[in-house]
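re: ur question from yesterday

yeah so i grabbed the chain u mentioned. its 130 aa long if i counted rite. heres the sequnce exactly as i have it in my notes:
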Amino acid sequence: MAHYAFLDENNIVTEVIVGRNEDEIVDGVSDWEKYYSEFRGQRCLRTSYNTFAGQHFLGGQPFRGNYAGIGMVYEQDIDAFVSEKPFNSWLLNEETYTWEAPIQIPEENMRYAWDEEANNWIAPSATEEN
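ran it thru and got these structure tokens back, copy pasting raw so excuse formatting
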């Protein structure tokens, strides 16, 4: 079974469906991206359920960076689905297709939050409630 993502005019994923396998031929149809696009009147691209951060979890070939989800963006120039950019300062890693802070998070066993204004990680104070 294959999965397909429908995109709006801004390449944002609006829906993901289960569809025909790309190697299936039914009633002469073999290009399922084209078929679903024409049927729905919305751009449709195949996505891999087993692909995340540029890795295929079953050892197969990773496909389009990440499994598409509603609200994700299809970046045509790198042929990948990526999540919404969390902060303006973060950069897209084009090997993992994930957003990364410009400064590595500290390795300590604490929860950190990104402070966009300070452009740095901040640790919660000891007096804050969880």
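noticed a couple things. The chain has a mean pLDDT of 93. also The chain has two domains: 1-84, 86-130.
anyway ttyl
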